[in-house]
Q: What sequence folds into this?
């Protein structure tokens, strides 16, 4: 997509659950790998209503677990 002569892309990853990296399945690892190879910002969206089936605490913990993978973004 383009906006004001800037090119950008939205990548909606499948659910990445909060568990250790070595316990992640193939789909989760592909999503993380795709995000890690982006050369731009990563936007993490949380569902503060908790209607997604995960508590806010679980979502924050997931963010903390994957944040080091995107330290340079």
A:
């Amino acid at each position: 997509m383009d906006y004001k002569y800037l090119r950008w892309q939205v990548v909606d990853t499948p659910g990445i659950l909060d568990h250790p990296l070595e316990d992640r399945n193939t789909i989760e690892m592909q999503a993380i790998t795709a995000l890690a190879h982006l050369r731009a910002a990563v936007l993490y969206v949380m569902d503060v209503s908790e209607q997604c089936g995960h508590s806010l605490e679980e979502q924050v913990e997931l963010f903390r677990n994957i944040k080091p993978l995107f330290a340079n973004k």
Remarks:
- Residues 2-70 form one domain.
- The two ends are 20 Å apart (CA to CA).
